[in-house]
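We read letters as residues; the fold follows as tokens. Both lines appear below.
***
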Amino acid sequence: MMALGVMLAFVVAVPAARADAGRALATCIRPIRSGDSAAAIIARPAGFDCSGDQKHWGSGDFWVVSQPLPADAGGLVRSLSLYQQSATLHVRYADGTIRTRRFDHGDAWRHLKLGSVFQLAIPQHAARPVRLLWEIRGAANTRGILLSPHIATVEEAQTREVTLAALYAAFGGICLSLLVSNVALWRSLRHGFRLPYCAMVATLLLYGLSTSGVLGPMLRMDNNLRLKINMVLLALTLTFALGFARSFFGSPVLSRRMRQVANVVTGLLVAAACAFAVLMPWQAVLLDRLTVVTFGMALTLVVPVLWGAWRAGVPYVRGFALAWAIPVVVAGLRIVQALGLVGWNFWLDNSTLFAMVMEATTSSIVIAWRIRLVSEERDAAREKESQALRLADRDPLTGLLNRRALLREVLASGGVSPRVLILVDIDHFRQVNDALGHDGGDEVLRVFAATLQNAAPADALVARLGGEEFAVISPSQTTVLPDRLLDAIRGARMPFDLRVTASLGSSIGYLETEGDWTRLYREADRALYVAKNAGRDRARWAQAA
């Protein structure tokens, strides 16, 4: 359902955002030369390359000039955020006046909008603007010098912001829900593969915050630092994804040699991303190519892993392979784009987010499928074990006496004096199982049984009668025992800091025969229901006949 929602949002959003909020601007580029004057160049552009191929210029300082602006042009200029030291926008008006707007990488966050887009307002002037000239200093030019320049109205920009806010909010909500649910499942079930899965989703969420541009204005972050963080987080996401695949598939799919290769590749991937973060902008193009190559190596490694998963023939493993096919295809397209073989596209540039959400959502379904199979096998094994231990004296889960052993011990001790029979029933135990699962519920039962055993007198008999119902039999002089047990239960520290309460019903009488046991049990049981009807978390005594 979540995956379908993301796809629907994507399809609805594309028409609203495909034009990048406004009218695209055709531009031409040339390097900045000594003695260049912005006023002279914007008045009479000459020597510019209008082919649209930016990456062949390499790193450096550049002029980027627009074609003449239409008469009805909007008042906002938008372009994609790139690694650069500074950008100055010169605006020429019909009367020859030139106005300037400038920012550098340190204060670029002031102009950063959702989708990692720089947005500058054209200064107000009596005459209309006729041409724009960008002065780009310190451009790394790993993706371009000026990407997707548009001129837009305020209304168009606001529509774009709302559309992207909805998409990024949906992405963040899905990541948070997957993270919280899988952390909870890891705490209760202790599956080893959940830790790298949670780490993958967490780094993916942080990558989404960074690549969307949200971190810039939120933390007033240097824009070049934000772009470096993007690279590191993307590398960590892929690293944790490979770790999750290793843990989830295990040796049937991943051979020892394949695991060794995976270790080397992930090490190179993280090293390349860290080198990018530390050394940029030194040898910017080389560092970018190095990271692209290591990402390609990791992607190449994933393909045989998925093929091995498919050949394993296990349905849930094949489901996982299909889930990962989506980000693998998208990652391949991103690498092709990074190599300059495909032109820049906003949706392809942000496709990693949507592909990983689709993968994470689909994988969570596959993981749930696997857990269900394991649970069914475990339940079947428990049923066989229960049948084998049915005649044993001890309850296999808590170690307490079972009903049969309790009755045997009581009748064997004779009826010399009256006894107190206390029935103890955990309140709302079904909710405990729903919250923690059966494994977590079993742990609660074990702790609860230990609490009763420790609070009961040394000569008392403590038993588990079945489910969440327990019994304590003690000499009648310990009439304060129900309250003591109740206090112990209230003060016990349960698994996951869960608060567990219980209702107690007590009766006094001789226990010489099974008939005495049946009568005393019925009286205590009626008192137990009185305690539950009175609001639970309390003790009640049977009424005298």
Q: What stands out?
A: The longest helix spans residues 351-388. The domain at 160-378 is CATH 1.20.1070 (Rhopdopsin 7-helix transmembrane proteins). The chain has three domains: 24-152, 160-378, 403-541. The two ends are 59 Å apart (CA to CA).
